[in-house]
Backbone:
């Protein structure tokens, strides 16, 4: 097993809901948190207990952190973009101001930020765009050129706040049904974007099929691809072993790797996408 | 706090300062949880079942949430006994943790090999012999489903471990008569029992109309199975009142642990609750201690099996 362990900055905290607003198909939720806000990095996630004390939902829900910052008055804030899909996320989206939710954050490995200015492309699928705006700001602060592609099935599922648009050099939207931007998928516009803008690194977050398609294209162009994977997890802290994917480690050994601890940000080249739902031949311990 | 309350427990001759331990497979080897509390605060860390060789485990999806519970189908992913002994045991010892090592085998010979590897390792309090993992290819491979195979696995451990280390056989509730299995393993040399492993279950995704887990079935855990655990512990304690039981099954609060203690558990494993709250075991410990004192017990031991008192006095 890998020597990786839980994010050393992770803290458990009862966080007060400061605001909860519906934005298109999603909810933008702001939580008041303690000093953990200052240790959150783009790509980290939060695990939230849902349903209250007598709930029949026994597992935490994991959400990418949209942004985390300290207000001028010293109050730490953690912002999330949540899709009310299942019972747990619906419960979270129905919290009102003043209520408290138990969180553990920051969890997982963050996106790697280059030390030199590079030409970066950020790609988000659906609410997978959530962690990309704070990443864009971090990259801009390093002097990077930042382009963004957001894709979704339909216009209402594109999450692109105004301030987010301001943090990038260009924003391209694709929708499967053509209700906003270009009709099609992010992979349809990607090769052209890489060529035209001389992209050197791709950061992505979204459905697994999208991440796989991006990896294939990135490989063709020899572009680095850091992707944030989404695999269902029970604990978020590395003890349940449910969120594994077949991933090659630094020594070239393919292992069933915990995405909560070694990820969620992964080198797209190292994920065995074609057999991500299997235990492929050659995996350590098979 | 009444400092005269004795919270210690005796597990077949080994004393733990308190009866709260982790449940195997829900705490790894303790490293991740150590970020949230000091492992020495637990009665012991029960490590994830270790096998002879490294094991990849099963394909995903490995997990499905269910009402007040979850199914898991991890398939005993782990590094194998060599790496475990090299890394995990010394680390746990360095943390001041008491250690109960859980072992699992695919054959009787595997159990013998594991016992031989562990017999001279220092720092271990007891062995939990997992003969009841439901996540195996063939239901016939679950040793604990049959008194003969259950006995064979425990005998192999007993023969190879020597006389020093207490062994606890972990049993499955998915049997017609758990008492007969319990009696069989005690005859074969088990000093105690760990009750209960998960129950075999299935969830079908009504969108895809296929089973949700890649391997179709998984082990059910969480509060949903607590009444099954209480029943199993109660029945076995009644039949074998002098055999210590590590009880587990859906314990989330001190009250839940108290229920298992009343049924006959001498120690309580906290498992699935840890997934929701990494400090669950510690709050269970605090709550149970308060509850026992509130109810007038002078020692933890007085409460073990207390629900049996009328039948015993008759």
Residues:
């Amino acid at each position: 097993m890998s020597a990786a362990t839980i994010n050393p900055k992770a803290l458990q905290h009862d966080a007060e809901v400061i605001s909860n607003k519906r934005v298109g198909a999603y909810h933008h939720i702001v939580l008041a948190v303690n000093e953990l806000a200052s240790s959150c990095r783009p790509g980290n996630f939060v695990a939230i207990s849902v349903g209250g004390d007598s709930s029949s939902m026994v597992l935490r829900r994991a959400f990418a952190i949209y942004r985390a910052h300290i207000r001028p008055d010293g109050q730490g804030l953690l912002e999330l973009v949540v899709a009310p899909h299942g019972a747990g996320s619906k419960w979270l989206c129905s919290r009102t101001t003043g209520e408290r939710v138990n969180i553990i954050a920051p969890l997982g490995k963050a996106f790697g930020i280059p030390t030199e200015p590079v030409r970066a492309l950020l790609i988000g699928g659906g609410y997978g765009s959530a962690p990309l705006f704070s990443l864009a700001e971090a990259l801009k602060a390093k002097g990077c050129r930042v382009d963004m592609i957001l894709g979704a099935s339909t216009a209402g599922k594109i999450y692109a706040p105004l301030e987010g648009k301001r943090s990038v050099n260009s924003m391209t939207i694709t929708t499967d049904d053509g209700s906003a931007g270009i009709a099609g998928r992010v992979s349809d516009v990607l090769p052209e974007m890489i060529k035209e803008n001389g992209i050197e690194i791709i950061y992505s977050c979204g459905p697994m099929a999208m991440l796989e398609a991006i990896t294939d294209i990135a490989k063709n162009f020899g572009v680095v691809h850091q992707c944030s994977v989404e695999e269902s997890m029970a604990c978020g802290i590395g003890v349940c072993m449910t969120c594994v994917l077949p991933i090659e480690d630094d020594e070239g050994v393919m292992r069933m790797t915990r995405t909560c601890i070694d990820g969620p940000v992964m080198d797209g080249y190292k994920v065995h996408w074609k057999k991500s739902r299997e235990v492929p031949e050659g995996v350590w311990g098979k | 706090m009444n400092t005269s309350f004795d919270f210690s427990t005796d597990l077949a001759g080994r004393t733990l300062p308190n009866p709260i331990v982790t449940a195997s497979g829900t705490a790894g080897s303790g490293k991740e949880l150590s970020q949230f509390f000091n492992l020495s605060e637990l009665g012991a860390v029960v490590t994830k079942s270790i096998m002879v060789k490294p094991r990849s485990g099963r394909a995903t999806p490995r997990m499905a949430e269910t009402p007040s519970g979850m199914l898991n189908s991890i398939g005993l992913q782990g590094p194998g006994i060599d790496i475990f002994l090299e890394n995990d045991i010394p680390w746990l010892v360095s943390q001041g943790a008491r250690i109960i090592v859980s072992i699992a085998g695919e054959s009787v010979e595997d159990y013998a090999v594991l016992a031989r590897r562990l017999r001279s390792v220092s720092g271990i309090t007891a062995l939990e012999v997992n003969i009841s993992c439901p996540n195996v290819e063939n239901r016939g491979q679950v040793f604990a489903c049959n008194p003969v195979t259950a006995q064979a696995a425990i005998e192999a451990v007993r023969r190879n471990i020597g006389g020093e280390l207490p062994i606890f056989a972990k049993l499955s509730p998915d049997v017609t008569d758990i008492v007969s299995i319990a009696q069989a393993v005690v005859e074969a040399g088990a000093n105690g029992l760990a009750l209960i492993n998960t129950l075999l279950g299935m969830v079908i995704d009504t969108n895809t109309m296929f089973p949700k887990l890649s391997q179709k079935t998984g082990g059910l855990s969480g509060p949903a199975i607590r009444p099954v655990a209480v029943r199993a512990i109660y029945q076995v304690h009644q039949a074998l009142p002098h055999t210590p039981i590590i009880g587990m099954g859906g314990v989330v609060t001190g009250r839940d642990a108290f229920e298992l203690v009343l049924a006959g558990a001498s120690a309580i494993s906290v498992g699935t609750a840890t997934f929701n709250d990494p400090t669950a075991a510690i709050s269970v410990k605090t709550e149970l201690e308060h509850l026992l004192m509130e109810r007038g017990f002078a020692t933890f031991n007085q409460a073990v099996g207390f629900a049996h008192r009328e039948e015993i006095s008759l």
Summary: The interface with chain A takes residues 25-28, 31-33, 35-36, 53-63, 65, 67-70, 72, 74, 77-80, 83, 214, 222-223, 272-279 of chain B (CB under 8 Å). Chain B has a mean pLDDT of 95. DSSP finds ten helices and 16 strands in chain B. The radius of gyration of chain B is 18 Å.
